[in-house]
């Protein structure tokens, strides 16, 4: 039987032959987003973890991302094409499915402006009885994290890495060679960052009733970081908004701070690719609300090495850490306070007044 086109829109064309659905997207990027969301939906409805933390077929919840139902299993057949076979027990109205998919896929591909001045991606997770609507600043990483933690159980950091056999990732790497078929693919490599992104989207760790808990637990003789959300509902009031850093801000900041890392004081004027604008107080702790008037106060210039060191430090400290006195946030203030303290100790040791100590120091210089 020849293919029958049942639905066409600006994003894709949906065809059907017997029980097989075929979808051809307008671009490979759209196909990538579709198959990535297919994987995340299957984390909810069709995958679970084995004793080694590897995701394998098995049911955890009866939820799915709307537009990616569990009775359809999509496979990549080309750069812009996928196909799925419906289960024998589930009838599907292909045209109705096309309408649902068009809306869901458009919401994942397109940011929508809202009254609060932000722009968001939208998607829904549902079962037969409940629907949860989400508006996210971020997309892939945070949706994956939510799908992993959606069962409201504690998960070790390895689960958030989404280690999964390559053979179940037909949409991620096309085509898959026989040699790759049995490999384990790690989808994400930084679970702490993944959890932080989810916190930014409304699952706060702060307050007397936090929506996310991060703690350590003994598993197989080893202490592991554990992550748990207490609610599936997003708290929009606790969502942390991150301002896009303008290119002009970046250039002005580097110039104002003499192309010098504020922490290690190394100059990179002739190697500016090593520099990055860093939020003095990380956005995961405080919304930045950057403007043309305040960006130079809220951002500082860091080199790649110091930026990474600060990122590792940020992962280890709690939500009550005082960033206003932190040398990682205000290294200039820390150096001044340290210099004053050293001068006071020097004066006391040498039985000098502070003016006398300063005079001696000036002579030494």
Describe what you observe in this structure.
By secondary structure, the chain is of the alpha+beta class. The protein folds into 3 domains: 4-238, no CATH class; 247-329, no CATH class; 330-365, no CATH class. The protein contains 10 helices and 18 strands. It has helices at 28-45, 94-109, 140-149, 157-161, 191-200, 247-256, 295-298, 304-316, 331-349, 354-364, and strands spanning 4-8, 12-17, 20-25, 47-49, 55-57, 64-65, 72-76, 81-86, 112-113, 119-126, 131-136, 155-156, 163-165, 184-186, 212-219, 222-229, 275-279, 299-303. The strands form 6 sheets. A 5-stranded antiparallel β-sheet has the order 1-2-3-8-7. Strands 6, 9, 10 and 11 form a 4-stranded antiparallel β-sheet that branches. The protein has a 3-stranded antiparallel β-sheet with strand order 12-16-15. Strand 1 and strand 2 (12-17) form a beta hairpin. Helix 1 (28-45) packs parallel to helix 3 and helix 9 crosses helix 10 (354-364). The chain is elongated. The protein starts with a strand and ends with a helix. The model has no long low-confidence stretch (mean pLDDT 86).
Attribute tags:
3 domains; 365 residues; 5-stranded antiparallel sheet; alpha+beta; 4-stranded antiparallel sheet
């Amino acid at each position: 039987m020849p293919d029958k086109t049942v639905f066409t829109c600006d994003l894709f064309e949906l065809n059907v032959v017997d029980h097989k659905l075929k979808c051809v997207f307008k671009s490979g990027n759209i196909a990538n987003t579709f198959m990535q969301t297919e994987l995340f939906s299957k984390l909810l409805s069709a995958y679970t973890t084995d004793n080694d933390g590897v995701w394998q077929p098995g049911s955890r919840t009866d939820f799915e991302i709307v537009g990616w139902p569990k009775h359809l299993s999509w496979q990549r057949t080309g750069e812009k094409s996928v196909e799925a076979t419906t289960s024998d027990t589930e009838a599907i109205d292909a045209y109705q499915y096309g309408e649902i998919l068009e809306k869901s896929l458009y919401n994942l591909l397109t940011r929508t402006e809202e009254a609060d001045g932000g722009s968001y991606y939208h998607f829904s997770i549902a079962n037969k009885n409940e629907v949860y609507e989400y508006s996210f600043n971020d997309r892939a990483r945070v949706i994956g994290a939510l799908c992993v933690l959606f069962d409201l159980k504690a998960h070790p950091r390895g689960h958030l890495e989404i280690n999964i056999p390559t053979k179940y990732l037909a949409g991620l790497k096309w085509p898959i060679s026989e040699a790759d078929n049995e490999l384990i693919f790690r989808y994400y490599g930084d679970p702490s960052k993944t959890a932080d992104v989810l916190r930014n989207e409304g699952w706060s760790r702060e307050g007397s009733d936090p929506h996310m808990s991060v703690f350590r637990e003994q598993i197989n003789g080893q202490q592991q970081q554990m992550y748990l959300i207490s609610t599936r509902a997003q708290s929009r009031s606790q969502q942390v908004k991150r301002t896009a850093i303008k290119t002009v801000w970046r250039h002005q900041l580097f110039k104002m701070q003499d192309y010098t890392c504020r922490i290690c004081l190394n100059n990179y004027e002739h190697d500016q690719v090593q520099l990055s604008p860093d939020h003095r107080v990380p956005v995961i702790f405080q919304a930045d609300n950057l403007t043309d008037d305040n960006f130079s106060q809220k951002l500082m210039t860091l080199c790649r090495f110091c930026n990474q060191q600060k990122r590792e430090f940020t992962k280890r400290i709690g939500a009550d850490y005082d960033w206003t006195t932190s040398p990682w946030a205000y290294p200039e203030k820390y150096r001044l306070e340290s210099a004053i303290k050293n001068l006071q100790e020097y004066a006391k040791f040498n039985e000098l007044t502070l003016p006398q100590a300063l005079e001696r120091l000036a002579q030494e210089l």
